[in-house]
Amino acid sequence: MNTTTASIESFRNIIEVSGEGTVAAAPDRALITLGVVTEKANLSEAQTENAAAVSSILQSLYQLGIPKEKVQTVQYGIDIQYNYKDGVQTFRGYKVTHLLRVTADKIEQTGVIVDTAVRHGANTISGVQFTSAHPEAYYHQALTKAVHSSRQKAATLATAMGVALHPTPVRIQEVSHGVEPPPYQMATFAAAASTPIQPGELNISAAVKAYYSYS
């Protein structure tokens, strides 16, 4: 299956086909990006207020049982804000942004994590993404389906041509793979009594290009 291109060219009768495979999997991990955006005329005040809110969020998450290693800063930035009027730029203040990435290994906690963070100062939820903790096993299943798909296509072509297909491919090339999670995108977030979040399912796909000989 891993012969070189030169050896492929030594076969006069070659069918080149593609194969695709997709496996549906239930997500078992949530990646939640949330944080605090603070705007103030004074930079020191903006930083202090932002830091206090983030600290409150962190403590609330730890009290939920989220391990410290499952929470990390993914963005911290300070921007100068301006007003524009009649082509004139005037200083308005500073914007401090601190975003956290929370990894939840119990996806049923997702809504609770969002609500808890909002109650303790989070004013932006940039996204919730559901993934699999072990996508490799599902990908291997999808890859197997892709190979079977390529063989079925080659067999169909061989039948149409009236030739005998050799079932073992001369070569197989992995083309692409990936996980297509169902994203739950959110912008600036307002607190609610309860946030229902449905994880849906993952589509894990694989694709191959295969070369079969025939006689």
TrEMBL record:
Q: Which domain of life is it from?
A: Bacteria
Q: Which GO terms describe its biological process?
A: DNA damage response
List membrane-spanning regions: none
Q: Which Gene3D superfamilies match?
A: Protein of unknown function (DUF541), domain 1 (3.30.110.170), Protein of unknown function (DUF541), domain 2 (3.30.70.2970)
Query: Which InterPro entries does its entry note?
Result: 26kDa_periplasmic_antigen, SIMPL/DUF541
Pfam family of this protein, just one?
SIMPL
- Tell me the protein's name: SIMPL domain-containing protein
Source organism per entry reads Paenibacillus elgii
Could you read off the lineage of the organism from its UniProt record? Bacteria, Bacillati, Bacillota, Bacilli, Bacillales
